[in-house]
Write a structure and sequence with these properties.
- The structure is a single chain.
- By secondary structure, this protein is an alpha/beta fold.
- The chain has a domain of 198 residues: de novo design (two linked rop proteins) (Up-down Bundle), CATH 1.20.1440.
- The protein is 38% helix and 12% strand.
- It contains 21 helices and 24 strands.
- The protein has a 17-stranded mixed beta sheet, with no helix packed on it. A 3-stranded antiparallel beta sheet has the order 1-3-2, covered by helices on one side. A two-stranded antiparallel ribbon has the order 4-5.
- This is Volume-regulated anion channel subunit LRRC8E.
Length: 795
């Protein structure tokens, strides 16, 4: 016998694949099993029992009729066949070998091929049906996608996050009406005043069920490991969706195998109906075997004809039912748009309105899933929702960034505020808003920040920095920050990405913006209106503006510090600066300036001016600074200035002058007439000598001469007895004058990188100088007398 288990490999599939089998595929599978049983049963009978039994005919050859087998029928059968005569008692004189020979020969020549091979045909056709049904589960181009989809689907279905997301949505859908009813009930109870106790109990009964609904269920608890697993699932679903939506190979393969089954069904049905009558009980056999057996005509009995005819009709019935399922499958395939799948019902039921519709093979598989159980697609849709993903990210963030961990990151910033800095996180943890002591919040490279209502818990918050971190601020939070926030720093690739709510913070005192204007807007340099910023005192703009933004004049009445960093782009129109009447500090850094703008000389309240990193070659206009009577700090560093004009002496109120990183070779003697100068920085130039008049600067406390070509110092320089810092490093000095002893307050002296052979022992008379403040080669320091070194090393 042939065990049915041998055919199991043709239909064996992973149990999980059953979710992709609609009811018609399941029915067809059972039908193929039934047809296979028919075929196997017929084959078993064919192999184990005699196929045909033949007896010779005793009629003379010339008297043989067309139906010689009728003479051998028993009486009952003869009467049924037309009353033929009875023949009995005849001996054939044939041995067993001759009968076997005749049986085999007549089976091969006289029996119709359909009667001979019927069970084998049933088995072959059934196996073809089985292959057609399961081919797309085996074909490499489709099986990999199916296995991947089933794997992801099972994980999504069993994920605790799916249950949490759906329960949260369910809670939100009921929370609003429930809360409303609770309030009405409470008001009714309050209005009743001293009502009856029975009424009070009744009200209590009405309220308590609402409380049960609004309480968070236990299933919403999600540990860190489960959150990470759900996060990985979101990534898998995204990649799988992109991969599967590119083509429709699954859809095409399913259609092809269904069409093939329909064609096979019609072919089987037609030829079975035509040939089923060829299965007969009696078969006449005429073979030329008279020389071997003595007979040429035989009457044969097909022993399994009666059973095969019944099996054939049964098989045809199963094939008809199978064909009807295939035809219905074709109708389903072509009647519905299976390459598109809409989650509209899921969106309406769950409230996740951002669940996208899908197409191609992804849509087709979801349609098949719906035929099995629509709950699968509903739970799977949770992992297609960006809102759901953001909630999960938020939950994982809260698990990772606990309040204790965030407190460890608190530190004082440059403004002295207690700052929390977060960088490159997938979102903003809700636990941040539990740190009520935070005064400054710095967020860098954090995508899609949405400040929750919990922002109002940061009662001490005064400063926010948003560096490449787009943020949305709800209206309630805007009201909270409007008068509290004092400083905000915003940095983006382009200035149009700056959130508009920034310009509505009327309590803001400092606004720092960094980003580029689009090329078509750079010349106009249009910036949002600053009229609402009534308290703004500091405005910093780093961009590529072609002129000073016109909106700067909106705050002209109270702006005290303006910083424009143009990253090398030339700043042309500066006339609007004249309107900044109360401006105290002005920075025009990397603005491509070749001369000092005349608009600056109109700023009567100006105290500090920084023109760093421009293209200044001449500063003849420096004479006009005498109109800026309050100017105390002038920074002209990192330019191409070749000389300082003589009328620098007019700046008698100047206290700090920065001329480093220029091309100066000499300094004018008139510089010594700036008697109020406390700091002079001329480092990184080409100075070869210093004018003795520098000794007149009796207020000088800081002198930087490093990285020049000085070979000697005038003795008059040491008349500056208030000098505390003297930087002489990396020059060509060969000796240091003993007059250095006159600098009693000197606390920092740099001598590295010179050609000194020894240090004067008079350094010991500089009472404020210690070893930590003396920057010199170790060999030179060791050359000092021991008592001098001991004195410098004293605490």
């Amino acid at each position: 016998m042939i065990p049915v288990a041998e055919f199991k490999q043709f239909t064996e599939q992973q149990p999980a694949f059953k979710v992709l089998k609609p009811w018609w595929d399941v029915l067809a599978e059972y039908l193929t099993v039934a047809m296979l049983m028919i075929g196997v049963f017929g084959c078993t009978l064919q192999v184990t029992q005699d196929k045909i039994i033949c007896l010779p005919s005793h009629e003379p050859r010339e008297n043989l009729s067309e139906a010689p087998c009728q003479q051998l029928l028993p009486q009952g059968v003869s009467e049924q066949m037309g009353g033929l005569r009875e023949l009995s008692g005849l001996k054939n004189n044939l041995d067993l070998q001759q009968y076997s020979f005749i049986n085999q020969l007549c089976y091969e020549t006289a029996l119709h091929w359909y009667a001979k091979y019927f069970p084998y045909l049933v088995v072959i056709h059934t196996l073809i049906f089985m292959v057609c049904t399961s081919f797309w589960f085996k074909f490499p181009g489709t099986s990999s996608k199916i296995e991947h989809f089933i794997s992801i689907l099972g994980k999504c279905f069993d994920s605790p996050w799916t249950t949490r997301a759906l329960s949260e949505v369910s809670g939100e859908n009921h929370k609003g009406p429930a809360a409303g009813r609770a309030v009405v009930t409470t008001v009714s109870a309050t209005g009743a005043g001293s009502g009856k106790a029975g009424e009070g109990e009744k009200e209590k009964v009405l309220v308590e069920p609402e409380k049960v609904v609004t309480e968070p269920p236990v299933v919403t608890l999600l540990d860190k490991k489960e959150g990470e697993q759900a996060k990985a699932l979101f990534e898998k679903v995204k990649k799988f969706r992109v991969h599967v939506e590119e083509g429709d190979i699954l859809y095409s393969m399913y259609i092809r195998q269904t069409v093939l089954k329909v064609c096979k069904f019609f072919a089987i049905l037609v030829y079975n109906l035509v040939y089923v009558e060829k299965i007969s009980f009696l078969v006449a056999c005429r073979v030329e075997t008279s020389e071997v057996t003595g007979y040429a005509s035989f009457c044969c009995n097909h022993t399994k004809a009666h059973l095969f005819s019944k099996l054939a009709f049964c098989y045809i019935s199963f094939v008809c039912v199978y064909g009807i399922t295939c035809l219905y499958t074709l109708y389903w395939l072509f009647h519905r748009p299976l390459k598109e799948y809409s989650f509209r019902s899921v969106r309406e039921e769950t409230g996740m309105n951002d669940i996208p519709d899908v197409k191609n093979d992804f849509a087709f598989m979801l349609h098949l899933i719906d035929q099995y159980d629509s709950l699968y697609s509903k739970r799977f849709a949770v992992f297609l929702s960006e809102v759901s993903e953001s909630r999960l990210k938020q939950l994982n963030l809260n698990h990772e960034w606990t309040p204790e961990k965030l407190r460890q990151k608190l530190q004082r910033n440059a403004r002295g505020r207690l700052e929390l800095a977060l960088c490159m996180l997938p979102g903003l943890p809700d636990t941040v808003f539990e740190l009520s002591e935070v005064e400054a919040l710095r967020l860098e490279a954090i995508c899609d920040i949405s400040f929750p209502p919990g922002l109002s818990q940061l009662v001490n918050l005064q400063e926010i920095s948003l560096l490449h971190s787009p943020a949305r601020l709800p209206f309630s939070s805007q009201i909270f920050l409007r008068d509290r926030l004092k400083v905000i720093c915003v940095k983006f690739e382009e200035l149009r990405e700056v959130p508009l709510w920034v310009f509505g913070l009327r309590g803001l005192e400092e606004l720092h913006l960094e980003g580029l204007f689009p090329p078509e807007m750079a010349r106009a340099a249009t910036l949002e209106s600053l009229r609402e910023l009534k308290q703004l005192k500091v405005l910093s703009l780093r961009s590529n503006a072609g002129k000073v933004p016109a909106s700067v004049t909106d705050v002209a009445g109270h702006l005290q510090r303006l910083s424009l960093h143009n990253d090398g782009a030339r700043l042309l129109a500066l006339n609007s600066l004249k309107k900044l009447a109360v401006l105290r500090e002005l920075e025009l850094v990397a603005c491509g300036l070749e001369r000092i703008p005349h608009a600056i000389f109109s700023l009567g309240a100006l105290q500090e001016l920084d023109l760093k990193d421009n293209h200044l070659r001449s500063i003849e206009e420096i004479l006009s600074f005498q109109h800026c009577r309050k100017l105390v700090t002038l920074r002209l560093w990192h330019n191409q200035i070749a000389y300082v004009p003589e009328h620098v002496r007019k700046l008698r109120g100047l206290e700090q002058l920065y001329l480093s990183h220029n091309k100066l070779e000499t300094l004018p003697p008139q510089l010594g007439q700036c008697f109020g100068l406390r700091l002079l920085d001329v480092s990184h130039n080409g100075l070869r000598s210093l004018p003795p008049e520098l000794g007149l600067l009796q207020s000088l406390q800081h002198l930087a001469l490093s990285y020049n070509a000085l070979e000697s110092l005038p003795d008059e320089l040491f008349f500056c007895q208030k000098l505390r810092t003297l930087l002489l490093g990396y020059n060509h000095l060969t000796q240091l004058s003993p007059h250095v002893a006159a600098l009693r307050t000197l606390s920092r002296l740099e001598l590295k990188g010179n050609r000194l052979e020894a240090l004067p022992e008079e350094l010991g008379d500089c009472k404020g100088l210690r070893k930590s403040g003396l920057l010199v080669e170790d060999t030179l320091y060791e050359g000092l007398p021991a008592e001098v070194r001991e004195k410098m090393e004293e605490e």
